[in-house]
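Exercise (ungraded).
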Amino acid sequence: MDVCLWWIGDAAADHDLLGTLRRQTEQVFHVTARAWLGRDRPTDSFDGRRQQHSSTRILKWLIDSRPEHATKVVGITDVDLFIPILTFVYGEAQLGGTAAVVSTARLLPNSGFRQDFDLFTARLMKECVHELGHTFGLLHCPLPTCVMARSVNLLHVDTKNPALCHDCQSRYAEIRKQGHEHHE
Amino acid sequence: MSKERTRILIVDDEEIVRESLSAWLEKDGYTLATAPDGETALARIRKERWSLLLVDLKMPGIDGLQVLEESRKLQPDAVAVIMTAYATVDTAVAAMKIGAYDYLVKPFDPEELSLMIQKIVTQQALVRENVLLRKVLKRDYHFRDLISKSPVMQAVFDLARTAARSNSTILVLGESGTGKELLARAVHAESPRSQGPFVAVSCAALTETLLESELFGHEKGAFTGAAVRRKGKFEMADGGTLFLDEIGDISAKLQLDLLRVLEDRHFFRVGGSESIHVDVRIIAATNRDLTKAVADGSFREDLFYRLNVIPIHLPPLRDRLEDLPLLVEHFLEQLGAEMNRRLDDVATDAMGLLMAQTWPGNVRELRNVLERAMVVASGRVIQLSDLGLRRPPCADVPSGGVLGSLDDVERHHIGRVLQESDGNISQAARTLGIDRATLYNKLRKYQLRKDGEPETEHPESE
């Protein structure tokens, strides 16, 4: 299992940040994760009327542009994302699929203090793990502190831990087991 | 409610809306389906149960409001939320009038949508839980066809359940309409004899000779008209239970005959010489005060003790008025099924009037009042006027401003019902919820004529 964390934002990639996300991904899901710095970017995701980027279009682009070695790809971007029916999303993922996208746009704290950067990193880490969890087939968790809990505001994001709760760990183990049996 | 049981139908003519909304909700574990237009939506609503309908307001053909209106008829329990791109007060009012839970303006704020769905799911879970709890409660309040939550009746049920396991004779005491036969049937059904027959005889309905033949049977030629040999109720009840209702009204001769059967379970058919043995459990019932009857010599003391092995006293309805709402609900369901009519409730003032009655005819009278109300009610709720009861019920109190005894109240009430019935005994008995024999007994007791007037001068009639 090779998870590719791909920076697809407008700003330059933050290697330290990507390294932190990679380690957390490996720790939570017991997979090999790699930071990918490919230069390609989605071109048709911007919606002029809404002044936001369509996360669904980015997902489609990620599936088509996924590096060969990657079984799953998480696009990380700094643009604001939306799906047609909602005003914004922090991210989107294919449930039980291969691609996910996460935006940093609404996770940034207002000031530029160091502790705020730590908070921002923690938030991004949680949303990355959350969306990747969906690609493994995990649903939203009713436990507010589980990383798989639904977040519709920053308070929800900050309440979560960056890891799976006990129940979600069991579900994940079951999914992986079924996946192995399926491949055998 | 578990999320898998929450079924959401998304109705929108825009594919992208259907897809993105279902993909967003899918991750919460709900069961989802989509419909591209009103017609498809209604077809799915007709076929399947839905918890939540998210319906776009403007669609070609059948629009959102029409879907909403029709869904109210097809699945009133499904919660409907209208989605619209252009929110106007008129739209909102129209949607709410038809019964929409709320409306959402596209695109939705994720927090708003999430909160609304959580609220709906929680509310529906509570409703389901409430239904389940009520079912459990009802089960606890039931003893076969008898229903009560009053501590006195619960004790009666406990005693009856215990008594059912034995073979001992039971004497059920209680006013007319309190459910003496229902209790006897329940005891039989709970007893090891439940596979055997349950035979009921009303001792007050027959003359002495007829009752004798009815109970013990007769041989061919035993009396004029006895063309063939006929089995009596005792034989018919062999292996089961014999219910002897109105036992306090049988003649002295029959009291003696009955005593013999109870002593050795043997008897002779009328005109017969062959001793017949039966295995019968006796449940007797009366609305008379047998202790008093024994004291005044009209009922054999030895028979009384034979019958009074396990006495069970059924309290009158006026002593367990806390059961009234439960009984009303029970009868609305029962009568609704019989009459193929659905009535949901009784209006508060109507229930107040029911609670204020003295119910001389007890539960049977209540059932009759509700049956009448169900026939005349025009809506889904029984109104005060549907009951056909007079207000204030304290008018039944004897005149003169002095509160009378229960006998006074009963005497007055019976007199008034007879007057209303123009002396028609059958009609008056029906209204009172008692049988004709009991009504005649009461007329004798209170010295009333068929027209409700006193036989002799009575101070209250002045």
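Further reading is listed at the end of the chapter. For now, observe: Chain A touches chain B through 17 residues (CB under 8 Å). Helices of chain A lie at 15-29, 55-65, 114-135, 154-159, 166-183.
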